Hints:
The protein is an alpha/beta fold. It has a single domain (3-262), classed as P-loop containing nucleotide triphosphate hydrolases (Rossmann fold, 3-Layer(aba) Sandwich), CATH 3.40.50.300. Helix content is 40%, strand content 25%. The chain has helices at residues 42-50, 77-82, 100-106, 115-125, 127-131, 142-155, 172-189, 200-206, 224-229, 231-237, 249-262; strands at 3-12, 16-26, 31-36, 58-67, 70-71, 85-88, 160-164, 192-197, 209-214, 217-223. A six-stranded mixed beta sheet has the order 6-7-8-3-9-10, sandwiched between helices. A four-stranded antiparallel beta sheet has the order 2-1-4-5, covered by helices on one side. Helix 3 runs parallel beside helix 6 and helix 4 (115-125) packs antiparallel against helix 6 (142-155).
Amino acid sequence: MKLEVVGIEVMYKGIILVIKGISLQVNEGKIVALLGANGAGKTTTLKAISGMISTEEGRVTSGFISMDGRHTENQNPEEIAKLGVIQVLEGRRVFEHLTVEQNLMAGAHMRREGIKTDLDTVYNMFPPLKKVASRSCGYCSGGEQQMVAVGRALMARPKILLMDEASLGLAPMTVIEIYEAVKRINKELGVSVLLVEQNAFTALEVAEYGYVMENGRIVLDGTSEKLKNNRDVKHFYLGLTEVGKQRSFRDVKHYKRRKRWLG
Length: 263
Ligand SMILES: Nc1ncnc2c1ncn2[C@@H]1O[C@H](COP(=O)(O)OP(=O)(O)OP(=O)(O)O)[C@@H](O)[C@H]1O
Ligand SMILES: [Mg+2]
C-alpha cells in the first residue's frame, strides 16, 4: 500500500496546533523511518494516519492523507483499519489477563476465517511466542509483549504497519529480534512499514528512507545512508561524538528519560 501525507496540520481540541504542515510518503512495500526528539509530533503523525487522533479530540485541519490514492484524513479509525492501516501503539498495550494467543486473536476481531493460518504466520515470524502461547501476557517479558503487540497487528492483515517506538525499554538483543521480524514481515508478506524510533541507529538500519521531525515540522529527509552520514543526525540522534565513538544503548535510553523529566 502506498501512503501519502500531503501538507497536513493537526490540531488538538480545536486550539493546540501540533503538526504544522508536514508531507511524507511510504511507497508500496517500503520501510520508512520517522525520527525526532521528544514532543516533535511523531506519535501524533502516526495517529493522524490511523485516525486515532479522533479519540483525543485531534483533527487534521489542513492538507490530506491518502492510501493508494484514496483520501482517509479524519475518517474513523475502524474504517481506516479496514483498509489495512494498522498501528502498533507505543508501550505494548497487551491485555495482561489474557493469554498470548487470545491477545493475538483479538487482532482478528473483524473476521472469522483464516485465523489458524494467520496465527501460524505470526508464530513463524515470532517463534518465541509459540512456546508461551497459553501463558498470561502479564507474565511475559517486555520483549515477548512487544512481539505480541506486533503479532496482534499482523492478525489484522495489515497492508501498512505504523509502529511507535517498538524498541523502547528492551534489551539490545530483543530489539534486533523484533526488527529482524519486521524486515521479514515487509519482505515476505509485502507489508509497508512506517516506524517511529528514538533509537535512530536501529531505525536507519531497518528503513531505507527517513524523515526527521522537529517541533511539528519535517526538517530533514533522505535515504538512510544520507541521514546516517548527516552531521546533525549523527550528533543529535545517533549519539555519536566528534570522534565517531558510539554511545551505549543505555546512554540513549537514559537521555530520553532525562529529557522527559526536564520536559
Ligand atoms: N491529546 C493531546 N492533546 C493536546 N496536546 C497533545 C496531545 N497529545 C500530544 N500533544 C502534544 O503534541 C506534541 C507532540 O506530541 P507527540 O506525542 O506527537 O510527540 P512525539 O514526537 O511522539 O514525542 P515522544 O518522543 O515523547 O513520544 C507535544 O507537545 C504534546 O504535548
Ligand atoms: Mg511518541
